[in-house]
Amino acid sequence: MAIDSKFLSMPIAESAPTATKRARLRDPVKGHADAITKNNIVPEEGTLDVALMFVPSETVYYELLQTSDNKGQPLDAYCRDKHVIAVSPNTLYAHLCVIAMGLRGMQMEENAKRLLESLSGMEKQRKIRGQVRNSGHPFEETPSKATASPTNSSREPGTLSKPCSAPVFPNFLSRIPPGTLPLPPEASIKKSA
Q: I need a surface site. Which of 24, 39, 43, 64 has the fewest CB within 10 A?
């Protein structure tokens, strides 16, 4: 946030007529606003796109607000068009508070976007978990259907009817020559049929 406090020190005589004061104020203020825009508003360097021009006197600030250029445009409107806001000792703190609240609001918006992205990622994960869980249901239901058959109804679900005490294929792999795999007799019958 750029705050330019090098306001032009131009003598404005208190006894001078108001029109004369405003005429002397017009061109230097416009030039100073242009210089602030050129030198202090550089978004590429991380500055905000607005700068404050501190006017050290409430009297001069009032005259600035009341002065218009040759085209009839008020000086403060010209400054705002250049993204420069004229502030006085009494309005500086108020402007800073408003800008700070705006920056906090932007930060909250950014945090809300990040939170929403995180939640959408969690929603995707929840959907994937649901799909995986749903795809696992037939496998989970299979043992209960098998145990409900009339031949297995006497035993508890998930248990074998006879416990295995010996390996199912003892020394089977040691009798097969390397690189070959014999087919079971049922497979050879199906081939010939």
A: 43
DSSP class of 15: T
Q: Domain residues of the chain, as ranges?
A: 2-89, 91-129
Measure the CA–CA gap between 112 and 108, rounded to whole angstroms: 6
Residues 40-67 pLDDT 10s: 888 888 888 889 999 888 888 888 888 8
Q: How many residues does the chain have?
A: 193
Q: pTM higher than 0.70 for the full model?
A: no
Give the pLDDT band (50/70/90) at residue 101.
very high
Distances (CA, A) of 136 to 38, 143, 179: 66, 13, 36
Crossing angle of the two packed helices 58-66 and 18-40, in degrees rounded to 10: 90
Q: Is the dihedral of CA 55, 60, 62, 67 positive or negative?
A: negative
Of the candidates 64, 48, 46, the residue with the CA atom closest to the CA atom of residue 56 = 64
Hey, is 87 helix, strand or coil? strand
The string over 16-55, giving b where at least 16 C-beta atoms fall within 10 Å of a residue's C-beta and e elsewhere, is eeeeebbebbbeebbebbeebbeebbeeeeeebebbbbbb
Structure tokens at 72: 């009839």
Q: CA-CA distance, 110 to 166, in Å (whole number)?
A: 65
